[in-house]
């Protein structure tokens, strides 16, 4: 299989399948000397995983990451303290699948001859034939996105240490749009959402808050913990969120990472109404990045906005737009152009219709990226399909676990993906700027 790698100087390669032993992400370009832990990665993964509430699939994958390589196991010499730090070699993160119940595998086996409309199951069968990994949709399942989130955790940290911050949130769901808000407020609300999710997540609390897995443990010791946890994961109870108390104390919606709490209320109601009708819904995720240096990006085929357009590789994403996006077709040049002016030796823009990118290069303004997420293909209504082997026409009734919407799970993936693209371009930018500075010059 090709196509599972992203990046040039910061490169990520992912592998695994929904019902295989697990998922993995292999990262090249991680700087040496970083303190990276399984717990830090888990705090991002718990934002994406299923089984948390009525807005996600009931599959209870705990998404417990285990760092396999790239970290020093001990201090490398006397007088040096580098245990637990990245050492510059490829960082490999494993995410075992722990909720592979055979009753669900049987359901997939019963329905895999009849591809789900809107899903990759027909096209993947055409490509891989009888060997196609169709149980849980294999690597075409949204399950693979946990690998992007894991790698994105590392990328976000590196970027933030260089003054670049990336934030994603739900802009629209089930046709309900959030109002325009300042970046600072969006980040404050998103930070609170992350805090609440960790506090209420039973896996995080059981494994990391109680120190059952620590950085000092060997790989096999961690595997023993996960082996025991696998036996009870299906019965793990998710604490019920006190929606009213959380709203009163934090001013956020506890189940949707939309900083506009009133809009989130309406989104939630509409998603549930569509779900109860046996259907699914989509939405829009917005990603904002600040602190990008002007000129970052590469021309022609590797334009920054072109690379961000690869967000279409995220499952369920059907469109990506930068800045005003599709709206520009209805604007005049004077309406669309972002006028420049100087003040106190600095350059400013009168607007940001371009979304922070012109000519494939960053302008130094906020980067604004939006991703359109389609409704979940697996629904609770009968749909017309075929038998893959006999080509008979068949009526398909959904029997597998499903998400009424994947928008609440896509935003952390989008945040991670954009971070991966930005870090790769940032490293290239630093390298090129370094070449332009001759030895002896500042």
Structural write-up:
With 442 residues, the chain is α+β, with helices and mostly antiparallel strands. It has one domain (5-436): Chorismate synthase, AroC fold (4-Layer Sandwich), CATH 3.60.150.10. The chain is 33% helix and 17% strand. The chain has 12 helices and 16 strands. The strands form 5 sheets. Strands 1-2-3-5-4 form a 5-stranded antiparallel sheet, with helices on both faces. Strand 1 and strand 2 form a beta hairpin. Helix 1 packs across helix 4 (145-161) and helix 4 crosses helix 12. The N and C termini lie far apart (46 Å).
Keywords summarizing the entry:
5-stranded antiparallel beta sheet, alpha+beta, single chain, Chorismate synthase, AroC fold, 12 helices
Q: What is the CA–CA distance across the termini? A: 46 Å
How large is the count of helical segments? 12
Counting DSSP E segments of at least 2 residues, the number of strands comes to: 16
Report the structural category: alpha+beta
Percentage of residues in DSSP E strands: 15-25%
- The overall pLDDT, averaged over residues, is 90
CATH superfamily: Chorismate synthase AroC
CATH level-1 class: Alpha Beta
Shape assignment: globular
The radius of gyration is: 23 Å
**CATH fold topology:** Chorismate synthase, AroC fold
- Spell out the helices and strands N to C: EEEHEEHHHEEHHHHHEHEHEEEEEEEH
């Amino acid at each position: 299989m090709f196509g599972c790698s992203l990046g040039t100087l910061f490169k990520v390669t992912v592998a695994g399948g929904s019902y295989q032993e697990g998922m993995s992400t292999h990262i090249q370009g991680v700087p040496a000397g970083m303190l990276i832990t399984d717990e830090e990665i888990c705090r991002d993964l718990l934002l994406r995983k299923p089984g948390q509430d009525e807005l996600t699939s009931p599959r209870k994958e705990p998404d417990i990451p285990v760092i396999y390589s790239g970290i020093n196991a001990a201090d490398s010499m006397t007088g040096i303290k580098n245990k637990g730090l990245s050492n510059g070699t490829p960082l490999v993160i494993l995410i075992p699948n722990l909720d592979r119940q055979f009753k669900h595998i049987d359901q997939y086996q019963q329905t895999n001859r009849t591809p789900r409309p809107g899903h990759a199951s027909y096209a993947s069968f055409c490509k891989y034939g009888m060997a196609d990994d169709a149980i849980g949709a294999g690597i075409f399942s949204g399950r693979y996105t946990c690998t992007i989130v894991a790698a994105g955790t590392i990328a976000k940290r590196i970027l933030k240490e260089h003054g670049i911050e990336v934030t994603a949130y739900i802009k629209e769901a089930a046709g309900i749009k959030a109002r325009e808000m300042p970046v600072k407020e969006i980040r404050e609300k998103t930070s609170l959402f992350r805090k609440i999710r960790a506090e209420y997540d039973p896996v995080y609390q059981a494994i990391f808050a109680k120190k059952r897995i620590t950085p000092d443990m060997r790989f096999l010791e961690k595997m023993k913990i996960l082996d025991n946890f696998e036996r009870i994961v299906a019965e793990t109870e998710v604490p019920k969120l006190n929606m009213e108390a959380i709203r009163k104390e934090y001013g956020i919606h506890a189940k949707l990472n939309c900083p506009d709490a009133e809009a989130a209320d309406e989104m939630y109601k509409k998603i549930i109404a569509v779900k109860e009708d046996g259907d699914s819904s989509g939405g829009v995720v917005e990603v904002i990045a600040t602190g990008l240096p002007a000129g970052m990006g590469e021309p022609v085929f590797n334009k920054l906005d072109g690379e961000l357009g690869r967000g279409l590789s995220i499952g369920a994403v059907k469109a990506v737009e930068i800045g005003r996006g599709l709206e520009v077709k209805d604007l005049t040049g004077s309406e669309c152009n972002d006028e420049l002016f100087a003040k106190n030796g600095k350059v400013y823009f009168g607007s940001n219709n371009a979304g922070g990118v012109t000519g494939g290069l960053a302008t130094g303004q906020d980067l604004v990226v939006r991703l359109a997420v389609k409704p979940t293909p697996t629904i609770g209504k009968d749909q017309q399909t075929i038998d893959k082997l006999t080509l008979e026409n068949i009526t398909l009734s959904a029997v597998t676990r499903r998400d009424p919407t994947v928008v609440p799970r896509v935003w952390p993936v989008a945040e991670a993906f954009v971070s991966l693209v930005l870090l790769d371009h940032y490293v290239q930018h630093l390298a090129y700027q370094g070449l332009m500075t001759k030895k002896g010059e500042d």
